[in-house]
Amino acid sequence: MNKLAAEFIGTAVLVLVGCGAAVLGGDHIGQVGIAVAFGLAIVAMAYGIGPISGCHVNPAVSLAAFIDGRMSANEMVMYWIAQFAGALVGALILLAIVGSNANLGQNGWGPGYLGEYSLVAALIFEIVFTAIFVIVILGATGQGSAPGFAGLAIGLTLAAIHLVGIQVTGVSVNPARSFGPAVLAGGQALVQLWLFIVAPAVGAVLGALLFRLRVLKVATA
């Protein structure tokens, strides 16, 4: 239960801080500021709850950990429940502050959404960059990694991903992060939510298989 509570809180904080920066401060801090907010949220939670649950705060990360043999299927599903619930609560808190569900930092693509990129562009971005994110996470927390620096590496990677992709999809690489705002915003965000579940899952599998198949495993004597 401690692990699930940690994942619940961590995912809520990620949505509240990251999406909150976009909604409440986006006009002032811009794309760079939003990217930094998401990255700092991960860094903070990595050191705050990492020792308890590993700080997945992302169903795609838990899926990757399962594929790499780091957690059981049952534990993965329990993590998913905690993460989606936490994301919804984080979005609810943001809604209470904003007072409107028009913009809760929901992800999307196409006409009227930020850079108006296509469905194909959104799919490619979310698959590729989730795979990259997972590779960093599994590598930074695996055998031969530098103890104590994983949180920083993961947070900086998430910030970099946002710098690249905010105009494409708003950046998900995390089904829970997309779920909370989309459920409350409804409309087009909810219609497009499928992509932000499917694409990160595909990316997570691709990234994790590189470790499972020992392509990126540290060589042992």
From TrEMBL:
InterPro entries: Aquaporin-like (IPR023271), Aquaporin_transptr (IPR034294), MIP (IPR000425), MIP_CS (IPR022357)
Chief place where the protein resides: membrane
Protein topology in the membrane: Multi-pass membrane protein
Presence of the UniProt keyword Transmembrane in the record: yes
PROSITE patterns, alphabetized: MIP, PROKAR_LIPOPROTEIN
Tree of life domain: Bacteria
Record flagged with keyword Transport: yes
Protein name: Aquaporin
